[in-house]
Amino acid sequence: MALVGKKAPAFSAGAVINGEEIVENFNLDQYLGKKNVVLFFYPKDFTFVCPTELHAFQSKLAEFEKRDTVVIGCSTDTEETHLAWLMTPKAEGGIESVTYPIIADASKTISLNYGVLAGEYSYDPETNLWSFDGAPVAYRGTFLIDKEGVVRHESINDLPLGRNIDEYLRILDAQIHVEKFGEVCPANWEEGKEAMQATNEGVATYLSNN
């Protein structure tokens, strides 16, 4: 089930913040009414594509902050594993210098609720957990959550497919434009380009100009 247009599933979990501090009961409520949130899931610490993505988000962090948006990572690893990876230099495949929060979803409940767990549980006839089919890690899911806690965009990549971070900035710009001007954003829209009114006349005017 798609989450777009719905309240983002709530959670409270351990996390590492500021690249060095483990906290308990990290949640999204602290941002309600204050910040947009880009919540992204990745499969696993100490892997291959994952550090490229985490560093890519870090390199664009100032751009997200300019748009009143926080970036938050999440995987099914523990807080301690996150911290160890954060202490590992970039040259050794680590994510040292990443400063945004990274959530520990060791129970896999957050990944399940966001629909990004790369597999599913099987049950025996007595409804006891029997096995797990697939990979017990998160797909590369990305969710743009507005200041009211509503999911405005979601995308899910398969495990080998890395994300384009600039695309999330573009979508965020579109969301901000819609909220500010009440217009809608056509295909391939980017900040500074013409948007349009959501009317037949608005569409006709846009198409005639483009």
Automatic annotation (TrEMBL):
GO terms for molecular function: thioredoxin peroxidase activity. The keyword Cytoplasm applies. Keywords: Cytoplasm, Disulfide bond, Oxidoreductase, Peroxidase, Redox-active center. GO terms for cellular component: cytosol. Residues 2-177 form the Thioredoxin domain. It is found in: Cytoplasm. One of its GO terms (biological process) is cellular response to stress. The active site is at residue 50. The keyword Transport does not apply. Signal peptide: none annotated. Belongs to the peroxiredoxin family. AhpC/Prx1 subfamily. Thiol-specific peroxidase that catalyzes the reduction of hydrogen peroxide and organic hydroperoxides to water and alcohols, respectively. Plays a role in cell protection against oxidative stress by detoxifying peroxides. PANTHER family: THIOREDOXIN PEROXIDASE, THIOREDOXIN-DEPENDENT PEROXIDE REDUCTASE, MITOCHONDRIAL. This is Thioredoxin peroxidase. It comes from Algoriphagus machipongonensis. The lineage of its organism: Bacteria, Pseudomonadati, Bacteroidota, Cytophagia, Cytophagales.
